[in-house]
Design a protein that fits this description.
The protein is an alpha+beta fold and 87 residues long. The protein has one domain. Helix content is 17%, strand content 36%. The chain has two helices and four strands. A hairpin with a 4-residue loop joins strand 2 and strand 3.
């Protein structure tokens, strides 16, 4: 989804500063991208970004994140990182 441009954001549990220039991977291929936004939000707020994450629904997005981060609740803070692919 990253390489095709469908995915334009990611959510991470751990905060920290991310570089403006990123190398993103789908596990097989990688692309260069530029970070356009980084902010800390509650998971409930991040759920509004499910479409730019490449998910079909808010529920699918939250289910995916809670599998990655067991015990993650809607009021827990996550890092939202939006990016654009470099041409």
């Amino acid at each position: 989804m990253i390489v095709s441009g469908v995915k334009r954001a990611t959510v991470r549990l751990n905060g920290g500063a991310y570089a403006e220039n990123l190398r993103l991977t789908d596990g097989r291929r990688s692309v260069e991208a530029r970070r356009v936004e980084q902010r800390t939000v509650k998971l409930g707020e991040a759920s509004d970004y499910y479409a730019v994450e490449g998910f079909r629904s808010c529920r699918e997005f939250r289910d995916y994140l809670t599998r990655l981060y067991p015990g993650l609740g809607l009021d827990d803070e996550v890092m939202l990182i939006r990016f654009t692919l470099k041409s």
